[in-house]
Design brief:
Length: about 400
């Protein structure tokens, strides 16, 4: 029996404003994670290990930063003569052209392409979470059920549940769904992986778009999914593995700390399910005499002569002699000069922390709590404290 014709649509067009400086000049799915990877590597690697070869990426903001990473799709075995990777930017010239106003709007604008492809199952995923999932297993379960949508669900910290679509389920069937509620009724949420029956779901999407009129559609969670739940056509696939949405600075930092936990909550280079990425030929990391490194991930091309603990260093990051980096994430090319201290912070590409300067730490209360970010290419002057302490 031939496998089902499956299409994965990665919705990679969000502005990523909650990641603040990290998405100032790059698409959210192109944000580095775990040293050498990017956020979009996770759904693409899931497709690879699930045996799914037809993957479309719908994008919108800072497209160059994402296209440079995607290239031909080769790291994920998507550089094929037939099928493979298709990048879909916003377009003009048709009745469905224009800027996407949300995930439902993005799907509606690409509905004709999906119908033309004719999949048995349409898998719609986001690109701002860290997890490993066999999409083929969810597709098989979905097709056997005959339902219109299967939502992959997971449990989260109850304090964070309001960031997601909160689900009530009974014996596998979803009986209630509320998107980003002010007062969540539980901690079971959709993790932004949906398997759809393309025909009836796209038909319903057309009806919703017609009802919306000039206002247009926004997100799937506001229009499409609640209607399918009301119609009794939605079920869940419970996911008990590691999953973390890293779409905020706080959760992005926490996700890196999860990599350093003992034992780590997720392993990116697990031989059974490696997270593939577009490599750029960095040489081996260099640890100088006197370097002190503990509980850290040090990427190829990084150089350490100082002290690094519970931190992740991306390719090209430099920690000079006498510098200290604690519980921090250094993105590509970030430099910490001699005598400087970086604590509980995220340094973006090319940041330079000057000699004897201090970034972050217990007293660095910022917009993201006790996590400090320094934007790409910025320089913290010699001896400075960043952010500046509040005046008395």
């Amino acid at each position: 029996m031939a496998p089902p014709r499956t299409l994965v649509l990665v919705l990679a067009g969000g502005a990523g404003g909650r990641l603040q400086l990290l998405t100032h000049d790059r698409a959210k799915p192109a944000v580095p994670f775990g040293g050498v990877n990017r956020l979009i590597d996770f759904p693409l690697s899931n497709c690879l290990h699930s045996g799914i070869a037809d993957v479309w990426v719908s994008q919108q903001f800072h497209t160059t930063s994402l296209n440079d990473h995607l290239s031909s799709g080769r790291p994920w075995d998507l550089d094929r003569t037939t099928g493979g990777l298709l990048v879909i930017p916003p377009h003009q010239g048709t009745a469905r052209g224009g800027w996407h106003a949300g995930t439902a709007d993005s799907l509606w604008r690409n509905a004709e392409l999906v119908r033309e492809f004719g999949p048995d199952a349409l898998v719609v995923v986001s690109a701002d979470a860290v997890y490993r999932l066999d999409y083929a297993d969810v597709v098989a379960e979905h097709l056997a059920s005959g339902d219109a949508v299967t939502m992959v669900t997971t449990r989260v910290d109850p304090a964070d549940a309001g960031r997601y679509g909160v689900v009530q389920a009974e014996d596998g069937r979803i009986v209630d769904y509320v998107y980003k509620p002010d007062e969540p009724r539980g901690d079971l949420v959709s993790n932004e992986v949906f398997v759809l029956d393309p025909g009836p779901v796209l038909d319903l999407l057309e009806e919703l778009a017609a009802d919306a009129g000039e206002d247009g559609l926004t997100d799937l969670g506001y229009e499409l999914l609640p209607r399918l739940v009301e119609q009794g056509r939605a079920r869940e696939h419970r996911f008990d593995g590691y999953w973390r949405d890293v779409g905020t600075v706080e959760s992005y930092w926490e996700g890196h700390m999860d990599l350093l936990a003992g034992p780590p909550r997720i392993v990116l280079d697990d031989p059974a399910w490696p997270v593939r990425t577009h490599t750029r030929g960095w040489g081996a990391a260099r640890l100088h005499d006197g370097a002190e490194v503990s509980d850290a991930l040090v990427s190829p091309g990084a150089t350490v002569a100082g002290s690094v603990s519970r931190s992740v260093l991306s390719p090209g990051a430099v920690v000079e002699a006498g510098a200290t980096v604690v519980e921090s994430v250094l993105l590509p090319g970030a430099v910490v000069r001699r005598g400087a201290r970086v604590e509980r912070s995220v340094l973006d590409d090319g940041v330079e922390v000057g000699p004897d300067a201090q970034v972050g730490g217990p007293g660095a209360v910022t917009l993201v709590g006790l996590r400090t970010t320094v934007g790409a290419g910025q320089r913290v002057p010699q001896g400075a404290v960043h952010p500046e302490p509040p005046e008395d």
